Amino acid sequence: MKFLVINGVNLARTGKRERNVYGAESLEEMNAEIAAFVAAHGHEVEFFQSDVEGELCARLGRADGNYDGIVLNAGAYTHYSYALRDAIAGISVPVVEVHMSNVHAREEFRRNSVLTGVCRGEVLGFGKNSYKLALESFWL
Ligand code: DQA
Hints:
The protein has helices spanning 19-22, 27-40, 53-63, 82-89, 129-139, and strands at residues 2-7, 44-49, 69-73, 95-99, 121-124.
């Protein structure tokens, strides 16, 4: 199977920002580990990151018909982007929402996701392993 992992706004700064919440590893280091995990299970994965809402929507649109599953950490867009919600609803590739942190144990505004309702499921709170668990859900 072939997967796409999409990271949204501010996630390129993982390892630099709020290390107490998101850890000290860079996104590149995390992606390398995730790629090795997926390859070890005989599957393929590609990665995309953008801070720009419209680019994330466009990438989701281009993914339609080209992947078996998408794992999406939209960052703060999760909490208010109806554009991303519509982009997910408008493709047939299943999307699993992920968060590194336990958003329910943080500020009130993080408890609401406008994306979950159009996603296949959600994995949160397990750091970089949230991505691996979400990917694994496609082949289990
Ligand atoms: C996040 C949680 C969001 O609330 C936050 O805006 C992020 C990262 C996470 O991975 O825990 O940027 O999606």
